[in-house]
């Protein structure tokens, strides 16, 4: 297993993983060829020094996991930086083998190396197994999140 920054060639594999669950299937548009908006999003992420899109490769080079880290500058916490972890996905054939835990260890280490004051995440309330996993990793259910979705 090897972790590295994502490349444009990884985008179809990442989107396939993101779309491969009941919630992702409703909001993603995974097809071949992949819509161009995903590649434009990658270009924006990749050019931003406060974003890290990471993939995990199997020993034979297959992309089997992904996560995105965003580093957000705040005035609170005396000008602290929050690391936000998003879009954590594991290929369905590799789930339950400890890969998610390893990916979180990587994210935690990255946030600590940068001296960020907190690593946070949000998760859909319809993912109870994910919530349990995050709590088991030491995350604390400390805030209530809210959203407004806009029609595009």
Number of domains: 1
CATH homologous superfamily title: Gcn5-related N-acetyltransferase (GNAT)
Average pLDDT metric? 94
Largest sheet: 5 strands, mixed
Broad CATH class: Alpha Beta
Distance between the termini: 38 Å
* Helix count, DSSP H or I runs of 4 or more residues: 6
Question: Could you list the spans in which at least 5 consecutive residues all have pLDDT below 50?
Answer: none
Biggest sheet strand order reads 1-2-3-4-5
List the helices and strands in order.
EHHHEEHEHEH
Structural class computed from helices and strand pairing: alpha+beta
CATH architecture: 3-Layer(aba) Sandwich
Helix content: 25-40%
Q: Would you give the CATH topology?
A: Aminopeptidase
Which geometry do the CA atoms define?
globular
Radius of gyration, taken over Cα atoms and rounded to an integer in Å = 16 Å
In total, how many beta strands? 5
Strand content: 15-25%
Give a written overview of the molecule:
The protein has helices at residues 11-19, 24-27, 36-47, 76-79, 99-113, 128-136, and strands at 2-5, 51-57, 63-73, 81-90, 118-121. It is of the alpha+beta class and 152 residues long. The chain has a five-stranded mixed sheet, sandwiched between helices. The mean pLDDT is 94. It has one domain (2-136): Aminopeptidase (3-Layer(aba) Sandwich), CATH 3.40.630.30. The longest helix is centred in the last third of the chain and has 15 residues, at 99-113. It is 35% helix and 24% strand.
